[in-house]
Amino acid sequence: MLEIKDISKHCGRKVAIYGGTIWGEIAFDYLIRHGYDIVAVCDLRLFGNAFRDRVIEPPEAVLDHTDAAIVVCATHGFHSMCDYLEEHGIIVAYHMGSIIQKTDFTRVHAWDVYTQDYMMGRYMHFVNEYLELVGGMLEFTQLGISVNSMCNLKCKFCNYAVPYTKNENFDRELQIEQIGKLLDAADRFYKVGVIGGEVFLSSDMHRVVNCLARSNKVDMVEVRTNSTIIPSGENLRCLSQPKVRLVLDDYGELSTERDELIRLCEQKQIDHAVMSSDYWYDFSDFSPQGYSDEEKRKTFRSCMFSSCYVLYDTVLTRCISLYAAALTGKIPNI
């Protein structure tokens, strides 16, 4: 297995960053400030995109810099990145744990609501998972709980296929019972998302939020809305709890209540963030690709959602896109 060390253990000044997401940006900014020479920034999916003062290169670019330390800057993609390096003869790579420890996340756009402990724990979970050091702990880095299959928007590429499935408010008693079983079975939940459909179409969604926020096993609860409905009563009050954050999706003119929701959050001191979507993924092609078992494993490990689980009604699924395909008859529901 590839040997993984903290970047603080590297004595040289040349560094290649593997990972072009915000994790890579955090590492890049820190290393530049401390006088390191960044010889390459690489990413399998993002090569060709702009990154700070340069352009992201394809993964093979890191192989051209054998005298540089390769820092793996990713969470969900950590395993697949390390596999790639090992397959190409790299014997040592570095993680960015010490960089996270020295990062002030109040200055990181869109991540300023996360604590340093949370970010460190989440990143190191993937490092330790790769190193097989999790030690029997059952941890969920990301869990979504869908409270309904109802939505007032009809997005063609909806990841949950809501426009194409039966619209219903899920049985809350059964769902709360399933959540209780999950909380009993697992050791830690880094982030749990309360999602729909559209969450505020369920007048009792607060019961799910309260159940999660009161558990000492849950680090953070994110309630996600399409910013078309103003919550009231218990659905509004549950958002003021310390571990709860309201995420406002910004779909432009479709998110008719976005500005009012921002004002309401500021007035009620509700932790919130606005998330803009510049593009959509189309998950609708479920035709056979002819992959071998090994190719399937690699594809799964490289998926950005490979560590995400969703409790849809009372069914816990590893891939909501596949489950949505089963619900709509595109693949067998097994």
Name a few traits of the molecule.
alpha/beta; single chain; 7-stranded mixed beta sheet; 3-stranded parallel beta sheet; 334 residues; globular
How would you describe what is shown here?
- Helix content is 30%, strand content 19%.
- It is built from ten helices and 16 strands.
- The strands form five sheets. A seven-stranded mixed beta sheet has the order 14-13-12-11-9-15-16, covered by helices on one side. It has a three-stranded parallel beta sheet with strand order 3-2-6. Strands 1-7 form a two-stranded parallel ribbon.
- The model has no long low-confidence stretch (mean pLDDT 88).
- Strand 15 and strand 16 (315-317) form a beta hairpin.
- Helix 5 (172-185) runs parallel beside helix 6 (205-213).
- It is globular, with a radius of gyration of 21 Å.
Counted beta strands? 16
Strand content: 15-25%
Assign a percent range to the helix content: 25-40%
Uncertain spans, ≥5 residues at pLDDT below 50? none
Characterize this entry briefly.
This protein is α/β, with parallel strands linked by helices and 334 residues long. The protein contains 10 helices and 16 strands.
How are the secondary structure elements laid out?
Layout: E1 3-6, E2 14-18, H1 22-33, E3 37-42, E4 50-51, E5 54-55, E6 69-72, H2 78-87, E7 92-95, H3 97-101, H4 116-130, E8 139-140, E9 142-146, H5 172-185, E10 188-189, E11 192-195, H6 205-213, E12 221-225, H7 233-237, E13 244-250, H8 258-268, E14 272-276, H9 293-302, E15 308-312, E16 315-317, H10 320-327
Parallel strand pairs: 1-7, 2-3, 2-6, 8-10, 9-11, 9-15, 11-12, 12-13, 13-14
Antiparallel strand pairs: 4-5, 15-16
Helix pairs in contact: 5-6
